[in-house]
Amino acid sequence: MEYYQLIEDQKTFFEEGHTRSTSFRKEQLGTLKKLLKENTDDISEALYKDLRKPEMEAISAEVMTVKDEIDHHLKKIYGWAKPKSASANFLSLPSKNEVRREPYGVTLIIGAWNYPLHLVLMPLIGAISGGNCAVVKPSELAPATSSLLRRLINNTFDRRYISVVEGGVEVNQELLEQRFDKIFFTGSTRVGKIVMKKAAEQLIPVTLELGGKSPAVVHKDADVKTAARRITWGKFMNAGQTCIAPDFAYVHEDVRDQFLMEVKKSIRKFYGRKPHKSKDLARIVNDKHVERLSGLMEGLNILHGGISF
Length: 309
Known about the structure:
- This protein is of the alpha/beta class.
- The chain has 2 domains: about 5-210, Aldehyde Dehydrogenase, Chain A, domain 1 (3-Layer(aba) Sandwich), CATH 3.40.605.10; about 215-305, Aldehyde Dehydrogenase, Chain A, domain 2.
- It has 11 helices and 9 strands.
- The strands form 3 sheets. It has a 5-stranded parallel β-sheet, sandwiched between helices. It has a two-stranded antiparallel ribbon with strand order 1-2.
- Helix 2 packs antiparallel against helix 4, helix 3 runs antiparallel to helix 6 and helix 9 packs across helix 10.
């Protein structure tokens, strides 16, 4: 695909002023919300195909969060877009000063596979609300959701305004060679460095939404049962494939054994004695990541407690 021409078409659309009015932005946000509402079943089905994501998780963590974000922007957009008065100083007197928030122009949004809908539509909402055009690149590791997004968005919006493109690493590489006005990337630190380097070569501003560490602390005065239940829920939601999932726990030695037992009880309550057969547990996205996780666990005494599930 000729990405250069797509971006040039979007730059022309932007420069013609189509995206600047707040009424236009609100209308497009409303269109996106309607698209979600009318296609929730298809979205749930695609997320199930890609991650075997339970319907409850698909609706609550992917669809509803996006709808809530749209509602927030619809409520705040006029205030955000309105110029703000700024005080004058001696050098600028007798001028009247104000701060105006201007759109970037044409943005690139690269999403991740673990929340393949949420992690492209949330930054897209910001792009729309800010008066920008957007090229959206979903993750190829979630092909059903990526294909659905391309069909829904490209059939709903003018390609000169918002366009979804699909493909693997080679598509990302080609897109990063283009002259965007802003890049929003969600993914790993390793790939984030590549994105930042390519953007820096053209002085393109970048937002990187990367992973991190999310420890949980359980002291001896905690409600251990409640703590274990909540930590288990946070860790096992989406099969642990969440950037802010608790990835390790610091537990006071006085309540260590109780905590481990309560985690075991919580897992059985949530997913039964055979979690691999549970309809409420999502699955690891592909074989490569299964092997990676298995490698991390080899030779380890998991949780230093030897829990048998």
